[in-house]
C-alpha cells in the first residue's frame, strides 16, 4: 500500500518482485488505490507491455531480450520489492536499463549476510528505516522465542566442509 499511495502522481508504474504471490498481492493493493488504471503482468508466459501498472517478475523482466521490449523511459515510477536482492545480476539489469523519475526500494532486511551494500544502489537515500527490535518493541511484529534442544552428539568428531559440519556425519549422528 505504501508504494500504491506514493505512486499516485505518476502515470506508469513498474513493480518488480521475485515471486508470483508478491506480484498478485501488490496488484490487489494497487487496484484498491488506483482503480481506473490498467493492470498487467510480465512473468512466465504472460508478457503485458502497455499497462499503466505493470507487475513483473525479476526472472522474466531481468533478461536482456525482455528488457528491450520496453523503452528505457517507459516507467515514471519503479518499485523494487525485496530490495536486498537488488545487488544481484537480474535486478541490476532492470535498474540500469530503465530511467524512471523515481525508484522505491522496499525491504525488511537491508543487512545482507554477504556484506554487500544495498544502500549505495540508491545513493544512501533512505526514506524510512526501523530495525527488528524497534519494530517488536513498538508492537509492529510479534516477539520471537528460541528453544534449545539438548542432544548427545559429539560435534568435535565431525568433519567440516566449507565451514559447515559434514552432511553425511550429521545424518549418521541423527538418523
Structural commentary:
It is a single chain. This protein is α/β, with parallel strands linked by helices. The protein is 29% helix and 18% strand. The protein contains 7 helices and 8 strands; from the N terminus they run H-E-H-E-E-E-H-H-E-H-E-H-E-E-H. It has helices at residues 2-6, 20-33, 58-61, 64-67, 89-97, 132-137, 167-174, and strands at residues 13-17, 39-43, 46-47, 53-57, 77-81, 102-106, 160-161, 164-165. A 6-stranded mixed sheet has the order 3-2-4-1-5-6. It is elongated.
Secondary-structure element pattern, one letter each: HEHEEEHHEHEHEEH
Question: In terms of per-residue confidence, which ranges show pLDDT below 50 for 5 or more consecutive residues?
Answer: none
Share in β-strands? 15-25%
The shape, in one word, is elongated
Total DSSP helices: 7
Strand order of the largest sheet: 3-2-4-1-5-6
Task: State the distance separating the first and last CA atoms.
Answer: 47 Å
Biggest sheet features: 6 strands, mixed
Class derived from helix and strand content: alpha/beta
Radius of gyration: 21 Å
Mean pLDDT: 91
> Helical content, roughly?
25-40%
Using DSSP, what is the number of strands?
A: 8
Amino acid at each position: 500500500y505504501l508504494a500504491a499511495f506514493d505512486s499516485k502522481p505518476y502515470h506508469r508504474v513498474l513493480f518488480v518482485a521475485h515471486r508470483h504471490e508478491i506480484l498478485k498481492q501488490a496488484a490487489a493493493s494497487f487496484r484498491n488505490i488506483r482503480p481506473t488504471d490498467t493492470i498487467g503482468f510480465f512473468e512466465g508466459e504472460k508478457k503485458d507491455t502497455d499497462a499503466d501498472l505493470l507487475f513483473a517478475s525479476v526472472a522474466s523482466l531481468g533478461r536482456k531480450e525482455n528488457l528491450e521490449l520496453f523503452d528505457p523511459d517507459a516507467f515514471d515510477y519503479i518499485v523494487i520489492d525485496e530490495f536486498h536482492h537488488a545487488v544481484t545480476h537480474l535486478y541490476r539489469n532492470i535498474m540500469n536499463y530503465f530511467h524512471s523519475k523515481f525508484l522505491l526500494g522496499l525491504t525488511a532486511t537491508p543487512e545482507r549476510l554477504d556484506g554487500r551494500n544495498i544502500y549505495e544502489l540508491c545513493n544512501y537515500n533512505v526514506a524510512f528505516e526501523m530495525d527488528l527490535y524497534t519494530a517488536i518493541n513498538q508492537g509492529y511484529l510479534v516477539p520471537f522465542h528460541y528453544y534449545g534442544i539438548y542432544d548427545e552428539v559429539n560435534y568435535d568428531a565431525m568433519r567440516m566442509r566449507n565451514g559447515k559440519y559434514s552432511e553425511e556425519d550429521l545424518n549418521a549422528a541423527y538418523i
